[in-house]
Write a structure and sequence with these properties.
Two copies of one chain form a homodimer. By secondary structure, chain A is mainly α. The first copy, chain A, is built from five helices and no strands. Chain A has two domains: 120 residues, no CATH class; 35 residues, no CATH class. In chain A, α1 runs antiparallel to α2 and α1 runs parallel beside α4. The radius of gyration of chain A is 17 Å and the shape is globular. The termini of chain A are far apart. The interface between A and B is large, with 48 and 48 residues.
Chain lengths: 175, 175
């Protein structure tokens, strides 16, 4: 069984390696840093890592987060939100919109702490399934991906896009 | 002087660690995998790594890429494009639009190979400046960030956004 080892001991991987992912790459708002760090670990452990990362990222997009409730937290929060996107900017702003808290508030920071715990726990769950031989991917791309790539995908009329994010988070339907 | 060591020898960091970033996280189209991998390395080497990553990412957004021209390439390409974004999806689609090549064509794959070389080379340049004590950051956030965060930034009327990407790549001005 795989466990999360929270250690900076001499034989552990340096936890600092994942820190640059914070705020979606040092505050740029791109890929959520929790997904980035978890994906790096998954890629070192699971041979078929793209499917495990797809499963983790799809779960992240569709799940009301955060789930984790620490005992005696410094900051209490109760709001959850569904990001619909693996991008930090979208994920954070959706939670701020749902909760009404400021983007740099202690509550939003607590939300991202708990979300990072959720992502790490889910990654460990999935890796344990891989180790046990019970990993059965369920993720499928959003409907918009199939719809839009019917023209924009490889070999099609426009042929200028690949991706797995929900197109309609940023683009309007134009057919 | 820092050099890029392309090796999988027993004492080298495993190159496979950065592979999950391909296609902006195994094809999701989020953060460009070249930026992701380079940023991981920068964060292990430079104490003030956020400024170095900002500089690299700002350069990536604003520069006509790819620059690198290998000798005797299997696939020849001549088109360059400016991404305006650190997101794989935007960067790739801008190049496809500029060149007319399909998103899965050998030419587009060659473009991303060369771009990865460009990003690695630029990261090494910046890290050598850090080591030499000559690193002088020049990157500033796009104008849209200041404009939009005047309402959407922390402590402001809406207070629901942080980020450094150009807002107008995905959003329309609405004031």
């Amino acid at each position: 069984m795989i466990q999360v080892i929270l250690s900076n001991g001499p034989r552990a991987a340096p936890l600092e390696l994942a820190e640059y992912g914070k705020g979606g790459l040092v505050g740029w708002g791109t890929l959520c840093g929790a997904l980035n760090g978890a994906s790096a670990v998954i890629s070192l452990v699971a041979k078929d890592y793209p499917k495990v990362i797809d499963e983790l990222t799809g779960w992240y997009n569709q799940t009301a987060l955060p789930i984790y409730k620490p005992s005696n937290p410094e900051t209490e929060i109760s709001t959850t939100s569904i990001s619909g996107s693996p991008l930090c900017h979208v994920s954070v702003t959706e939670w701020c919109n749902a909760s009404g808290f400021d983007v740099k508030s202690p509550e939003r920071i607590e939300r991202c702490r708990r979300l990072a715990a959720d992502v790490a726990a889910r990654a460990v769950e999935l890796l344990n399934q891989v180790v046990a031989g019970t990993f059965a991917p369920t993720w499928t791309a959003p409907g918009s991906v199939g719809e839009c790539l019917a023209c924009h995908g490889t070999g099609k009329a426009v042929g200028n896009v690949f991706g797995k994010m929900d197109c309609f988070m940023c683009h309007e339907r134009h057919m």
